[in-house]
Specification:
Chain A: It comes from Microvirga brassicacearum. Chain A: GO terms for molecular function: electron transfer activity; heme binding; metal ion binding. Chain A: Keywords: Heme, Iron, Metal-binding, Signal. Chain A: It holds the Pfam family Cytochrom_C. Chain A: This is C-type cytochrome. The structure holds 2 protein chains of 2 kinds. By secondary structure, chain A is mainly alpha-helical. Chain A contains 9 helices and 2 strands; from the N terminus they run ααααααββααα. Helices cover about 45% and strands about 0% of the residues of chain A. In chain A, β1 and β2 form a beta hairpin. In chain A, about 30% of the residues are buried. In chain B, the strands form 4 sheets. Chain B has a 5-stranded mixed sheet with strand order 3-2-1-5-8. In chain B, strands 4-10-9-6-7 form a 5-stranded mixed sheet. Chain B starts with 7 loop residues before the first helix and ends with a helix. The radius of gyration of chain B is 26 Å and the shape is elongated. In chain B, about 35% of the residues lie in helices and about 20% in strands. By secondary structure, chain B is of the alpha+beta class. The chains are: A mainly alpha, B alpha+beta. The interface between A and B is medium-sized, with 23 and 24 residues.
Chain lengths: ~210, ~325
């Protein structure tokens, strides 16, 4: 009877372990090597927010690798903190190294330099209404200043600030925001994407 | 190695690069500017020679202090009287002929234009054969290439000065007077001009363009400019035209067929102009909207109020209507 009990106990232990090992994801957090690369962490965890326009763009900013680790462990404003049971130290190190070298997200499907050239040409009148950091004259005050556009929550106070929405808005503002004073200046889709890419380089003056 | 003069080439190219462009007295495009340019070269070279001579004379006693005393009479009468007399005798009559083209006579069938300076913009009106005011524009002067054009210069308020460095020297515009000037462009192109007499707060932003076209293109342009503004074709443009009338834009601005005022620039072809606000902004619907809504912010002190009480769609309709006036 006692022996049977012990056997039962052992069987239960084995069953419990095998059950546990089948549960995927964060529950078995200690297992080193669960994350194959920093990029995988970025795509599966960070990307949920930072690639969907919920969190700001964190690629292409070239901070030292440890800086990313500090944000992950401690959280920042609305960003939650992640424990080592969720992202182990080695994976975190790899994530930091990946992000420190990662170019800006390709989701902004445009060329910021070409976009700036379009804005600076003056032909589309951007600066006649908006103050733009890299343009000395004119500095319009009809619409909002464009500094900090990279981190602004809403476009025209009503649309989510996502690359695709911004490009569509630039192409035909009244179509997305009927009450806007911003006219359709006849940009092609490619030009609108380039300008959007440029606008996403405009950080708020006091940093992240 | 150190003697190789080739390193100078990029420097020379760089400094010469500054001589060209749409507004440069060093890149003349007409007979009047060319003769001024010639005079300039003679003056620069002459001044360089005089500087060289004086420097050498100054160095002689320093480098060779034991020489016999100088001939004072030769120096005083030769260098002090004879040399300036000779130079000036040659130079003064020559200078008087320079820029003669600016006042040359023209024949009766040539283009005559009245240009009037206002605080911070230019009114341009082509004279009909009978002398009356014909097609009008602002801040842009279209001319045919290779013909002397007669300009009658007026001023509405203060003294301005018309200067297109690539085509001619400056001529003042004085209230109560009419100054006559003849300009000519020998090759097609766009030449930038600027008010050259300080006239107030926005003197800087008082530029204009001379657009030199082949005669046939000029005739087409002039015929188009004399037509009434085209009728608005879409509901938005009609709304824009109605706003233009209702907001009182026509109290200052003329749009041929809609309003006739002459306090501000003629807007009959504003949509095709290269600049807005006399060189303040490039053209285009975005700039027209920005200028309309905040003219006082962009060019403080100009006569146009900021129409900042418009709703977004109204501003867009007005800007679209103005941009359609081509």
């Amino acid at each position: 009877m006692r022996q049977r009990g012990r056997l039962h106990g052992q069987a239960l232990c084995v069953a419990a372990f095998s059950l546990l090992s089948t549960i995927p994801g964060p529950v078995i957090a200690q297992s080193d090597g669960r994350w194959k690369s920093g990029e995988e962490v970025y795509v599966k965890v960070c990307g949920r927010c930072h690639e969907s326009g919920v969190g700001r763009v964190i690629k292409g900013r070239a901070f030292p690798p440890q800086a990313y680790g500090a944000f992950v462990r401690h959280g920042h404003l609305a960003m939650p903190s992640f424990r080592s049971s969720e992202i182990d130290d080695r994976a975190l190190q790899a994530l930091g190294e990946f992000l420190a070298r990662a170019p800006i997200s390709t989701q902004v499907d445009g060329d910021a330099e070409r976009g700036f050239a379009l804005v600076a040409s003056g032909a589309y009148g951007c600066a006649a209404c908006h103050a733009i950091p890299d343009i000395r004259f004119p500095k319009g005050n009809v619409g909002p200043p464009l500094i900090g556009m990279a981190g602004r929550s809403l476009i025209a106070g009503q649309l989510p600030n996502r690359p695709d929405v911004l490009a569509a808005f630039l192409r035909n503002p009244p179509a997305l925001a009927p009450q806007t004073g911003m006219p359709n200046v006849g940009l092609s889709l490619e030009q609108a994407r380039d300008i959007a890419a440029y606008l996403y380089t405009l950080e708020a003056p006091n940093g992240p | 190695m150190g003697r190789d003069p080739r390193w100078l080439l990029p420097l020379i190219a760089l400094s010469l690069g500054g001589c060209g462009g749409p507004q440069s007295a060093l890149d003349p495009a007409g007979p009047s500017a060319a003769s001024l340019h010639r005079l300039g070269i003679i003056m620069y070279v002459g001044a360089a020679l005089v500087t060289l001579l004086v420097t050498v004379l100054m160095l002689v006693p320093i480098l060779r202090p034991r020489e016999r005393p100088v001939n004072r009479r030769l120096f005083l009468w030769g260098g002090g009287v004879a040399l300036p007399l000779l130079t000036l005798t040659a130079l003064v009559p020559y200078v008087m002929t320079v820029g003669h083209e600016t006042r040359a006579a023209t024949t009766s069938n040539q283009v005559s234009v009245d240009v009037t300076g206002y605080v911070y913009w230019w009114d341009v009106a082509y004279r009909r054969p009978d002398g009356s005011r014909g097609a009008a524009s602002a801040n842009e002067l279209h001319i045919p290439v290779g013909e002397p054009i007669e300009l009658f210069l007026h001023a509405n308020d203060v003294i301005h000065s018309l200067w297109v460095p690539s085509l001619a020297g400056k001529t003042d515009m004085i209230p109560g007077r009419v100054n006559r000037m003849v300009i000519q462009a020998d090759r097609p192109g766009i030449y930038r001009g600027q008010c050259a007499e300080y006239c107030g707060l926005q003197h800087t932003l008082m530029a204009f363009d001379v657009i030199a076209l082949p005669r046939a293109e000029f005739d087409t342009w002039l015929a188009g400019a004399a037509q009434p503004a085209r009728e608005p074709a879409t509901p938005e443009l009609r709304q824009g035209r109605d706003l233009f009338v209702r907001l009182g834009c026509g109290v200052c601005h003329a749009v041929r067929g809609v309003s006739e005022a002459r306090l501000g620039p003629d807007l009959t072809q504003v949509g095709s102009r290269r600049t807005l606000g006399a060189g303040t902004l490039p053209g285009g619907v975005g700039n027209i909207a920005g200028w309309t809504a905040s003219a006082q912010h962009l060019k403080p002190g100009n006569a146009m109020p900021s129409y900042d009480q418009l709703e977004g769609p109204q501003l867009r309709a007005l800007a679209a209507y103005l941009e359609s006036l081509q």
